[in-house]
Write a structure and sequence with these properties.
Helix content of chain B: 25-40%
Oligomer: heterodimer
Order of helices and strands of chain A: HEEEEEHEHEE
Radius of gyration of chain A: 26 Å
Distance between the termini of chain B: 98 Å
Structural class of chain A: alpha/beta
Order of helices and strands of chain B: HEEEEHEHHHE
Radius of gyration of chain B: 27 Å
Number of helices of chain B: 5
Strand content of chain A: 15-25%
Number of helices of chain A: 3
Largest interface: A-B, 54 and 48 residues
Number of strands of chain B: 6
């Protein structure tokens, strides 16, 4: 009875044609979400001091970063005290404007939570920091974080 | 002529290529979490502000000169000895502290382990550490000093926390944060420890 020939059983091959699509989707997701929000540095990448009592900075959107270090462009001199705000070298006076601008993007209730992170080269001078600190205090940006590497700084 | 059929391109290795890219991006994009020494600045004092009188013995004066040398209460000190000196100063407990929690009178420090030297600080909540630095001081040294001071406080808080609650202070804080910052009992504990050794570190403004 050839009519009732036994059907050949067995798993049909699982189509893997859509696998690349899935993986590509993941790939795009990661490519898009991990934005490198680092502004291009106009100063030599600061070699941060190290400290052991560090706190992590949370809420990236509430952090504004000020870089202090040696400017790549030699017209600013070869001292380690150039201040970079956003994408230009500025003066301590411009810190005020920089912070006020950053505040525009933030809801009013969150303004007291805003943190200023200072990434300064360990060879820079405290005077520069003091200038920035006074400007920040003038406009009530009171949370400050001195960016450091983790590790002990003292050779015992 | 026989029609040549286009052989289908094998897409099986496409997944491998995509995975390779995916793994590359996963590995290379290090989410560098920023960390740093956090500081809270004091508010700008009003113009007619008269600073309160503070006894000299309650101030721990640190000054760093432009050659990155350290002076503590007028004497030269090495960086590695700073933490110990700060601990000794804060934990001295030689007198009556500021009233806390709405109490009328301040109490003696009943948790301090210091020498109770009448010439040193009265109470941890009265002990002020002031840091004065020259404009030309190196920033790295300044941060190190701040870090040493913070670790002095960390040590004191840890000691008290260990004694009272049998765990280290970071452990206690971690538990509190894990509870979603809601657990009232833990909150009170954290607050108590922080209040017992408040971090009073001020940066002196440059003198004109």
């Amino acid at each position: 009875m050839s009519k009732f020939r036994k059907k050949k059983k067995g798993m049909p091959a699982l189509s893997t044609a859509s696998l690349p699509d899935i993986v590509f989707m993941l790939l795009f997701f990661f490519m898009v979400t991990t934005t490198m929000r680092e502004t291009s540095l106009l100063i030599d990448a600061p070699s941060l001091p190290s400290a052991s009592q560090v706190k992590k900075l949370e809420h990236k959107s509430l952090v504004s970063t000020i870089y202090v270090g040696k400017a790549k462009d030699t017209k600013y001199g070869d001292k380690y005290n150039s201040i970079q705000l956003n994408d230009k070298i500025g003066t301590p006076e411009m810190v005020t404007e920089f912070i006020l601008k950053a505040r525009e993007d933030v809801a009013e209730v969150e303004i007291p939570l805003m943190t200023t992170s200072i990434k300064a080269d360990k060879q820079s001078n405290v005077g520069t920091l003091t200038d920035i600190r006074l400007k920040l205090r003038d406009i009530n940006a009171l949370k400050l974080s001195l960016s450091t590497n983790t590790g002990s700084s003292i050779k015992k | 002529m026989a029609r040549r059929e286009n052989p289908e391109i094998n897409a099986g290795s496409m997944a491998d290529i995509a995975f390779l890219l995916l793994i590359f991006f996963l590995v290379t994009t290090t989410m560098n979490v920023d960390s740093g020494v956090s500081k809270k600045l004091a508010e700008k004092p009003p113009v007619d502000y008269v600073p309160p009188k503070i006894k000299m013995k309650n101030i721990f004066e640190i000054s760093i000169n432009r050659n990155n040398e350290l002076f503590v209460d007028g004497e030269v000190m090495e960086l590695k000895d700073l933490k110990e000196a700060a601990v000794k100063f804060v934990d001295n407990g030689g007198g009556i502290g500021n009233p806390i929690n709405g109490e009328e009178k301040g109490k003696e420090c009943d948790y301090c382990g210091g020498d109770k030297d009448p010439e040193s600080s009265d109470h941890p909540n009265k002990a002020i550490i002031s840091v004065e630095s020259d404009r030309l001081t190196e920033y790295g040294v300044y941060v190190t000093v701040q870090d040493e001071l913070l670790s002095a406080f960390a040590e004191l808080r840890n000691k008290l926390c260990q004694k009272k609650y049998n765990m280290s202070f970071p452990e206690l804080e971690g538990k509190f944060i894990d509870s979603g910052r809601k657990d009232e009992a833990l909150k009170a504990k954290v607050k108590f420890i922080k209040q017992s050794y408040p971090q009073i570190i001020t940066d002196l403004d440059p003198q004109n």
